Amino acid sequence: MLHAVLLIAGLVGSNIFMTFAWYAHLRDLSAKPWYLAALVSWGIALFEYLLQVPANRAGHQVFTISQLKLIQEVISLSVFIPIAILYLNERPSWNYLWAGLCLLGAVYFVFRSPRPSREATPQVTALGTEVSDSRVETPTAMSGSNPPTRSDHGPPL
């Protein structure tokens, strides 16, 4: 649970910085040369990365990469909409609602299947090195002698 809280808090903070890095120059630095706006944005983005990297590392302890990406997108839109309306004076639109509903659908599909166990027996890669991560496909599994198994992305098509 702590990993999920650290992930959410870190991504909310990082998305606030990133939204300002990407869009605040349109309001505040529009009369300045583009390279000055880029340097200021880059400086703001540093703080985004200082929050995002540890948040994703904590989150990866309990979520798959696909789940992390969808959590990021939901938080990104949740942070962007208030900033766009309140700070950048964007007019609210029904499209924000439709985009949010599409993201909820994506969240459903990514989170509907359980995460595979990371506690697998060590496996050997094609190069002969031992790997303990259960997500690595062994040569036997790739050869087709075993039936396909459910992956992080749902059942095979």
Structure notes:
It is built from five helices and two strands. The chain has helices spanning 2-28, 34-59, 65-86, 94-111, 139-143; strands at 123-124, 130-131. A two-stranded antiparallel ribbon has the order 1-2. Strand 1 and strand 2 form a beta hairpin. Helix 1 packs antiparallel against helix 2, helix 1 crosses helix 3 (65-86) and helix 3 (65-86) runs antiparallel to helix 4. Residues 135-143 and 145-151 have low confidence and may be disordered.
Number of helical elements: 5
Query: How big is the Rg?
Result: 20 Å
Supply the number of structural domains: 2
* Structural classification: mainly alpha
Spatially, the strands of the biggest sheet line up as 1-2
Shape: globular
End-to-end separation: 33 Å
Q: Segments where pLDDT lies below 50 for 5+ residues?
A: 135-143, 145-151
The share of residues in helices is 55-70%
Total strands: the figure is: 2
The succession of helices and strands, N to C, reads HHHHEEH
As a percent range, the share of strand residues is under 5%
Major sheet description? 2 strands, antiparallel
Mean pLDDT: 80
